[in-house]
Specification:
The structure holds 2 protein chains of 2 kinds. Chain A is α/β, with parallel strands linked by helices. Chain A has one domain: TIM Barrel (Alpha-Beta Barrel). Chain A is built from 10 helices and 10 strands. In chain A, strand 4, helix 3 and strand 5 form a beta-alpha-beta unit. The longest helix of chain A has 17 residues. In chain A, 54% of the residues are buried. Chain B contains 16 helices and 17 strands. In chain B, 47% of the residues are buried. Classes of the chains: A alpha/beta, B alpha/beta. Chains A and B meet through helix 7, helix 9 and helix 10 of A and strand 4, helix 8, helix 9, helix 10 and helix 11 of B. The complex binds cobalamin (B12) and iron/sulfur cluster.
């Protein structure tokens, strides 16, 4: 006997956000990336349509990053050259986007000027044809200056810039509005703060389809379950037509996963944990694949070997099932 | 689950004789609804009523037990934030009877050795699925016994040949293996074998409609120890089927699908396979058979399983009392942290690695991390000072120095004032503790 399956008909869908702009659209990108738009729980093709597949943004920093050798070795000699590094991510590793993190701006570190930071971003733009995501050094006052300069220097490119947080969202939102960019709204694993922040940003005049949510994840083994459930609730909220939860979600997978000891310690130090070569790659991979199951749209990743595995996983899941 | 008192009352004999120990049938029904007493206390309840009550009170997904303590199913929600997931996916490694004896032994040894300790938790692989790929019943039986002798772990015995199962299963029935797979073609014999040996059996069909038919027919044989396999062997289809089965069981209490489900990976490259497996661990597989078995491949998957199946309402915590690491003495350093298990064990691991015997005091923060606790006002200097002065360490060390997490450096002045101890700000990440501890001169 045929079984009557349960196919949810959701009243709404995740909002769509377009990143980047081609020449006709006032930018210089070869093509744009559109995220969101789905009216189903992740990859359940039987109840809706996967309009836009999840994408991978690869992390590029403006100073040589303190990452472990297993990751750094895969990039060869480009890590001191953001433009060449970004190009390698796109050409060799198939990154859909580049996520530029301007750590050099840190007042306690190199304390680079906003103009220098903007120059780095311009260099990366010149080197690759994919859209860019740009964030600062996580020092709010400095980031406000840096992102204002970056937003202005790249006007028309329709970047995704961050980070707007509950107690520091105004200047970055203003910069995005004036120079026509999108904003990452970051909240600490909390649905209510997430909604509240989206409301505040929207009230300033930035349209909802210019906002991407960063729910702040925890990595595998270090709090991923909190992110998993917050994101699943947010996705259900979006589908139930809660407009202030309807934005696509971005997850800083590479950063969180690689903070874990399990992603860095050698097998000699921890014989029972097995080879780092496989363990480290999978630590980042599973942080990504688990969050894909609860609605991640943009995965920010760093280990090329993990990127490849996640690309396979996404391809397997967006493939439409035979009827 | 839970029936109301009135629903139960309707099924009782209504004699009000009091033999059950409560004065009336209604009082008895109310007691049952509250989980007190057993239906058996009423001598007059009819078989039909008993059956109706049992099935109405049965959980939406039956619990199936097999092997060495493996429990499948018995889940009650679709999303872990609705309550929690209870029975972590049972993960088994595929062993084939076409392999050489040496390869089989090596694999079983490897699986036996998959034991991991991290952040105070112990993970291990649940068992082995022996698959009859030789087509030879005698060989299969031989391999099954060989594996059974070489491991204490749970066993799954898989063949599509009736003779192979008939040869292989009875000699190891005492190990309570899960057997399979019963299909449209052979289910009568295989379910009969399972019933005779009192073992759970996998029902496998191609697609959900066929699976529904097969379950109905198999149930009609008077047996209910089933695990379902919807036959799909592509990730996107397996995800869809796992979801459909779970939804129908939970939301509609659709009885034919009220059983645990087994998933099989298909990717050949081990790292791709682990990524595929992560989908089924996240979304509803009760059991999972995979080929990858190297430590570095398996630890990430077992970690994900542990994470997904923790209770969202209760973070794992440690006792907020003074802990000694190593052979402590009156000069041992004193660290304070929080009682969130993840935080505590991150610190303990590094303190241990420093090889300097030390005390660690996890302050009660309702099981939250350092910054979460601090942001929530649960890691205030007053509270830490109180814990420090009352945990007994005062009498155990002769110095008065306490090391605090680098992330809460801002509290050091206040803590010093409240406790009278000298506060030393440690590194932010626990990974900095080893070099920090060595440079410490108290
Ligand atoms: C998971 C999480 C939660 C979970 C709680 C998990 C838990 N059981 O604690 C939930 C969702 C419930 C939560 C809630 C909140 N959170 Co929260 N949360 C996080 C998150 C993502 C991870 C925390 C974690 O588990 N870390 C792992 C543990 C192991 O880290 P740890 O305890 O710090 O320990 C490390 C070090 O401190 C060091 N260490 C520990 N002890 C010691 C001791 C010594 C002596 C030394 C030397 C070192 C040391 O070793 C460990 C490993 O390096 C962080 C952001 C992030 N990615 O870090 C935010 C974060 C901690 N949360 C934050 C906030 C604001 C909150 C809320 C107040 C707001 C909200 N979201 O509503 C609430 C408070 C809830 C409440 N009332 O209790 C902020 C804190 C901001 C600040 N700087 O004060 C953070 C930093 C996010 C942010 N950037 O805004 N959170
Ligand atoms: S023994 Fe049975 S019939 Fe008698 S009062 Fe109890 S429930 Fe009613």
């Amino acid at each position: 006997m045929p079984v009557t399956l349960i196919k949810e008909r959701f009243p709404s869908k995740v909002g769509e956000v377009t990143l980047g702009a081609t020449a006709e659209q006032g930018g210089t990108r070869d093509s744009v990336v559109v995220v969101g738009g789905d009216n189903l729980l992740p990859f359940l093709h039987f109840e809706g349509k996967v309009v836009n597949r999840p994408v991978i943004a690869m992390e590029v920093t403006d100073i040589v990053p303190p990452w472990n050798e297993a990751i750094k070795a895969q990039f060869g000699d480009v890590l001191d050259n953001p433009a060449a590094w970004a190009k390698k991510c796109v050409d060799e590793f198939g990154a859909d986007l580049i996520y530029v993190k301007l750590i050099g701006a840190d007042p306690e570190g190199l304390n680079r000027s906003p103009e220098d930071c903007a120059r780095v971003v311009k260099d990366v733009l010149a080197a690759v044809g994919v859209p860019l995501i740009v964030v600062g050094c996580e020092t709010p006052e400095k980031d406000n200056e840096v992102m204002a300069a970056v937003a202005e220097a790249t006007a028309g490119e329709n970047l995704l810039i961050g980070l707007a947080e509950q107690d520091n969202y105004k200047s970055i939102t203003a910069a995005a509005m004036v120079h026509k960019h999108n904003v990452i709204a970051r909240s600490p694993l909390d649905i209510n703060i997430c909604k509240q922040l989206n409301i505040l940003i929207n009230e300033m005049g930035l349209p909802l389809n210019k906002i991407v949510i960063d729910p702040m994840i925890g990595g595998l083994g270090f709090g991923i379950e909190y992110a998993y459930s917050i994101m699943e609730r947010a996705r259900l909220g979006a589908l139930a037509n809660d407009k202030m939860l309807s934005m696509p979600m971005i997850c800083t997978v590479g950063y969180e996963a690689n903070r874990a000891k399990e992603a860095n310690e050698s097998v000699e130090a921890f014989p029972d944990w097995g080879e780092l070569a496989e363990r480290g790659v999978l630590w980042e991979t599973l942080t990504a694949t688990a969050l894909l199951q609860v609605g991640a749209s943009i995965l920010v990743m760093r280990n090329p070997a993990a990127v490849k595995l996640v690309q396979h996983n996404i391809a397997d899941l967006v493939e439409v099932a035979e009827a | 689950m839970g029936l109301t008192g009135l629903e139960i009352y309707k099924q009782l004999p209504k004699k009000n004789c009091g033999e059950c120990g409560t004065p009336t049938c209604l009082a008895f029904a109310m007691a049952l609804a509250a989980g007190k007493g057993a239906l058996d206390s009423c001598p007059y309840v009819s078989d039909a009523a008993r059956e109706a009550l049992d099935s109405a009170a049965a959980p939406p997904i039956k619990a199936i037990k097999f092997g060495n303590g493996s429990v499948l199913g018995d889940e009650t929600v679709l999303f872990r934030h609705d309550k929690t997931f209870y029975h972590p996916t049972t993960i088994l490694v595929h062993v084939s009877d076409v392999w050489s004896d040496a390869d089989i032994s090596a694999k079983v040894e490897e699986v036996n050795g998959l034991e991991f300790d991290r952040v105070g938790l112990h993970y291990s692989m649940d068992g082995i699925a022996i698959v009859n790929e030789s087509g030879d019943a005698a060989r299969f039986a031989e391999v099954v016994q060989k594996v059974a002798a070489a491991t204490e772990k749970s066993l799954v015995i898989l063949s599509d040949k009736v003779e192979a199962l008939q040869a292989a299963v009875p000699p190891v029935a005492a190990r309570k293996p899960l057997i399979g797979s019963a299909t449209e073609e052979n289910y009568e014999t295989i379910v009969a074998l399972a019933k005779e040996q009192a073992l759970p059996v996998i029902l496998k069909a191609n697609g959900l409609d066929a699976l529904n038919d097969l379950v109905e027919k198999a149930q009609a044989l008077g047996y209910k120890e089933f695990v379902l396999d919807p036959g799909s062997r592509k990730p996107v289809e397996t995800l869809a089927n796992l979801t459909h089965l779970r939804r129908l069981a939970i939301k509609k209490k659709f009885r034919p699908f009220g059983y645990p489900v087994v998933a099989f990976t298909t990717k050949n490259e081990p790292l791709d396979e682990i990524a595929e497996a992560s989908v089924y661990v996240s979304k509803y597989a009760s059991a999972l058979v995979l080929k990858a078995s190297k430590k570095g491949q398996v630890l990430p998957l077992l970690t994900l399983r542990q994470n997904i199946y923790t209770d969202p309402q209760k973070p794992i915590q440690v006792e907020p009392t003074l802990h000694a690491v190593g052979d402590v003495n009156e000069n041992s350093p004193v660290y304070v942290t929080t009682n969130f298990s993840l935080t505590y064990y991150s610190v303990e691991g590094e303190v241990e690695a420093s090889k300097i015997p030390s005390y660690i005091l996890p302050v009660e923060t309702d099981g939250t991390s350092v910054l979460t606790a601090y942001a929530a006002g649960k890691y205030e200097p007053e509270k830490i000072a109180d814990a420090l002065l009352n945990c007994g360490v005062v009498d155990k060390v002769k110095h008065r120095n306490v090391i605090i997490p680098g992330y809460v450096a801002v509290i050091s002045g206040k803590l010093q004032e409240k406790s009278g101890w000298k506060v030393i700000v440690g590194p932010r990440e626990s990974s900095g503790i080893v070099s920090f501890a060595r440079s410490l001169s108290l």
